[in-house]
Design brief:
Layout lengths: L7 H26 L3 H10 L1 H10 L3 H21 L5 H22 L7 H6 L7 H30 L1 H6 L4 H23 L4 H13 L5 H26 L3 H24 L1
Helix pairs in contact: 1-7, 1-9, 1-10, 1-11, 2-4, 2-5, 2-9, 2-10, 3-4, 3-5, 4-5, 4-9, 7-9, 10-11, 10-12, 11-12
């Protein structure tokens, strides 16, 4: 087993999984406690439009996904912050539009791009040094944001109206948070793909919430769980020649349902 660590692609995969785990642990916690899972899902699936646009224009797919996701994040944040009664329908429409737009542009792109499926289902074993740099940049932004505004984020997460009355810049923090979710979604796509990314952002924090009593503790435990799920998925996918993204999520969802089952059993 230890022999596989000598390969550079496996070293990159493990390092990227650890960096992504920290990102998912921190941002995923904020997503869960602020009930923003559907927003994250809309950004994840909508960002496929950026991948298709990038392929059509002949630019880097991750650059296209980033710009497209950031644009969507601004639109969604603007609508969600105003508490639109139909925000779920609007996000669903943007979700579908992004996917449809990306598929149409991919169809119009001359030739067949064999790497296209990796953006849908992930390809962590093919993560490059450039991908690691992008993940590192996003991780730095996330850590700086949370470190500087931790108390304000806690106040906003539990009672936005009260936080607003206390002078917390909730609007600015909300827009920045949604933009960071978009960036986190894009860099996590390389690990598990845009179809499965929402699971890695929500499952570890949901489990961690049952065993912690603070947001900081929830972030730390979520990070640990994300790392365990990711590393287990990587090694299982390598050993049995399986899709890495799907295997990571299979491990995460298995633990998730086991936790739910044990919770029900001990409750009665």
């Amino acid at each position: 087993m230890i022999d596989i660590l000598q390969f550079e692609f496996m070293q990159n995969a493990i390092l990227s999984s650890l960096l992504v785990s920290i990102i998912c642990g921190i941002i995923g916690t904020l997503i869960v406690i602020n009930r923003m899972v559907f927003i994250a899902g809309g950004l994840a699936h909508g960002s496929y439009g950026g991948v298709g646009l990038a392929l059509y224009l002949g630019i880097a797919p991750m650059l296209g996904a980033t710009l497209f996701a950031l644009t969507l994040s601004f639109v969604i944040a603007l609508l969600a912050y105003k508490n639109s009664s139909r925000i779920d329908a609007i996000i669903g429409a943007l979700w579908a539009f992004g996917m449809a737009f990306g598929i149409i542009l991919s169809d119009l792109t001359p030739g067949y791009n064999v790497d296209l499926m990796s953006y849908l289902f992930g390809a962590i074993l093919s993560v490059s040094s450039e991908d690691l740099m992008h993940i590192g940049i996003v991780l730095t932004l996330v850590c700086l944001f949370v470190c500087f505004y931790y108390q304000q984020l806690v106040a906003m997460s539990f009672d936005m109206e009260f936080a607003k009355l206390r002078g917390v810049p909730t609007r600015a923090l909300y827009f920045i948070l949604v933009a960071l979710i978009a960036l986190c979604v894009v860099v996590t796509i390389r690990a598990v793909g845009l179809i499965l990314v929402i699971a890695l952002l929500s499952i570890p924090p949901y489990i961690a919430e049952k065993f912690t009593h603070s947001i900081a503790g929830m972030m730390a435990f979520s990070t640990l769980l994300s790392a365990l799920f990711s590393l287990s998925g990587i090694f299982l996918s390598y050993m049995y020649d399986l899709s890495s993204g799907a295997t990571i999520i299979a491990v995460a969802t298995t633990v998730f349902f086991m936790q739910l089952l044990s919770e029900k059993v001990f409750k009665y």
